[in-house]
């Protein structure tokens, strides 16, 4: 199996239900390496690009609001990159099917997910569907220096920006 990276998001329902530890313990069964991790406040724009493949769906805006944390009073997600042999397939298998009612009951989504009365699948976790999606999504959520291995080609860009620093 090839060395791959995949994006994991612990969604706002996973954070609110205090499932971070359980989910990371389940993912540790893969023996993959965590090469990046951070908490992210998700903007509407970031959510929309992340879920761009759902743009024509009637539930698109609901899914964006869900990822932004508007339904859970938790305006953040935990984003991680898992790296190793067959990372995309291994993590996807542990996550289970998109619809938590159809997911294997012992998968993460099968164990902890639910379908809301609005019809949104609150499935606690995002896992890139395949390596191509993973590459796109990791570049969307992380900058090169936030990942402790070199996953993709980079370039040096010189820019003058104002940034906050510790006083
Ligand atoms: N989703 C939903 N209803 C659907 C399809 C998707 O609520 O009929 C939500 C669900 O939270 C899912 C996310 O939109 O995880 C992204 O959908 P996708 O088809 O990419 O599924 P995933 O890759 O997350 O399994
Ligand atoms: Mg998907």
* Largest sheet strand order: 2-3-1-6
Based on secondary structure, the structural category is alpha+beta
Task: Note poorly predicted spans.
Answer: none
CATH class division: Alpha Beta
Overview of this structure, please?
The longest helix is centred in the C-terminal third of the chain and has 11 residues, at 131-141. This protein has seven helices and six strands. The model has no long low-confidence stretch (mean pLDDT 97). It is globular. The protein starts with a strand and ends in a 26-residue tail after the last helix. The chain has a four-stranded antiparallel β-sheet with strand order 2-3-1-6. It has helices spanning 12-16, 20-28, 44-50, 60-68, 87-95, 108-112, 131-141, and strands at residues 3-10, 33-40, 77-85, 114-115, 121-122, 125-127. A hairpin with a 5-residue loop joins β4 and β5. The protein has one domain (3-146): Nucleoside diphosphate kinase-like domain (Alpha-Beta Plaits, 2-Layer Sandwich), CATH 3.30.70. It has 167 residues and is an alpha+beta fold. Helix content is 33%, strand content 19%. Bound molecules: uridine-5'-diphosphate and magnesium ion. Uridine-5'-diphosphate is lined by residues 51, 54, 59, 63, 98, 120-121, 123, 126, 129.
Indicate the topology.
Blueprint (H helix, E strand, L loop, with lengths): L2 E8 L1 H5 L3 H9 L4 E8 L3 H7 L9 H9 L8 E9 L1 H9 L12 H5 L1 E2 L5 E2 L2 E3 L3 H11 L26
Antiparallel strand pairs: 1-3, 1-6, 2-3, 4-5
The protein binds uridine-5'-diphosphate (UDP) and magnesium ion.
């Amino acid at each position: 199996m090839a060395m791959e990276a995949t994006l994991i998001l612990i969604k706002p329902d996973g954070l609110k239900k205090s499932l971070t530890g359980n989910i990371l313990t389940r993912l540790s069964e893969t023996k993959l390496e965590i090469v990046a991790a951070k908490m992210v406040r998700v903007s509407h724009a970031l959510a929309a690009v992340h879920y761009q493949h759902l743009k024509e769906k009637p539930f698109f805006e609901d899914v964006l609001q869900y990822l932004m944390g508007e339904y859970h009073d938790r305006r953040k997600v935990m984003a991680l990159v898992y790296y190793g042999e067959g990372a995309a397939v291994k993590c996807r298998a542990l996550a289970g099917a998109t619809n938590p009612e159809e997911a294997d009951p012992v998968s993460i989504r099968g164990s902890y997910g639910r379908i809301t009365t609005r019809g949104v699948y609150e499935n606690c976790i995002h896992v890139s569907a395949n390596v191509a999606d993973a590459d796109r999504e990791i570049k969307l959520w992380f900058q090169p220096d936030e990942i402790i291995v070199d996953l993709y080609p980079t370039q040096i860009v010189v820019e003058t920006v104002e940034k906050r620093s510790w006083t």
